[in-house]
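Recap quiz, item 2
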Amino acid sequence: MATRTAIIEQIYEDIRDKILKNEYTPGSKLSENSLSADYHCSRTPVREAIKRLEQDGFVTVLPQSGSYVKELTLKDYQHIAEVRTYLESLAFRLNCENEVDITPFSAILDAMDRCDMDNPNEVMTFSDLHFQFHLEMVKASGNEILLTTFNRLNLNTNSLLFYQRLSTQGKVQTQEEHRKILEFLEKRDATRGEKFMFAHLWRKRNAYKRSRV
Amino acid sequence: MATRTAIIEQIYEDIRDKILKNEYTPGSKLSENSLSADYHCSRTPVREAIKRLEQDGFVTVLPQSGSYVKELTLKDYQHIAEVRTYLESLAFRLNCENEVDITPFSAILDAMDRCDMDNPNEVMTFSDLHFQFHLEMVKASGNEILLTTFNRLNLNTNSLLFYQRLSTQGKVQTQEEHRKILEFLEKRDATRGEKFMFAHLWRKRNAYKRSRV
DNA sequence: AAGTTCAAACTAGCATACAAGTATCAGCAA
DNA sequence: TTGCTGATACTTGTATGCTAGTTTGAACTT
């Protein structure tokens, strides 16, 4: 049975995906009326979906006026990268403590290795898998609150965080780092592994910071 | 002008406060009908407030059945403490980078020093100031996303995190650590300061973990 | 022609009505 | 007495109507 309340969830995800895919561009308006027409439902579920999007930082609501897709600045990206760095460092530490199985992680890395970086489609796959890897790290931690916090962290950033290194060379370096992270995880070396994980992510943060000009 | 939409905000905060004050005990039901009667409004704003409470982890909504105040387990407290540790460590590092002024922090610590731990009221004040200190650390970082993330981190935990050390002895130790944190902050020693901040918070996390029996 | 004003149209906030799923409890059977 | 069943009352989910704030643009003034 698809529960009835799933309608809101569905609208939420659909709008969010369209924002992530840039079908709704930053600054564009999200009208309750037109959206309810699009989804063949009343304004109520649309309204609740928009409220959630606002909560999660995708949308800005101006009272009595309208809802607009939020524009993220480079500074926002930097801030998100900062928080992500720390959340994922925590995830790594917890995974060491819990002695998680690394085979699922290895599987993802293997799949990433098989991607041909001269094929745009596979570059996309590579990026998706890359995100999967990091998400899996958080999921495996067994800390639900950490996972929720991570998921809420405006995933707009995926594009910028992970669609960056497109070249075969970039792939090799990224993968080397990922393998090393897994090595530390296998050895349950929380201290050094966390340091490495931190550096892996913080570098990207610094890139945002520098590019502010 | 008090904007009209403030109604939802007001209901949200009121219910949240009542949950924090234990006026609504964990497991108890939050009926849209009775709440809308309490607040002399329709179900719509109440509904949106409850949806926000659900998002923020205070309430569990069972479809077509009802909303209930979430019961937090010791494990939840541990998980929250873990995430807080890392978020505040980040805050400390950013404050070092930004070379923030430490006087507001000192002021809070001074006020804490003046609390008489034999007077229950002042113990309460001490706890509030304690939370203020940590919140200020996050606010000063200038990372809005970090602040939002921190604020959402179910503040139920305050009671357990900060109402713990009630004795004069506990106060002294806590304050010593806080002063040391400020010293590191003043010296802009991100590396060692962050380590100390981490230890300061992680100890509490370990206390939760141990007490699981 | 440019700026201002005011009214009309549009937007979301809120109230209310109805639909549909869930829980409860009385009545019955074993 | 205990366990089951079914009807009823109650809950939230969704639709819709009305209100009030916001925006827009055309007419008017300067």
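The longest helix of chain B spans residues 74-98.
Chain B touches chain A at residues 3-5, 48, 51-52, 55, 57, 63-64, 76, 79-80, 82-83, 85-87, 89-90, 94, 143-146, 148-149, 152-154 (CB under 8 Å).
End of item.
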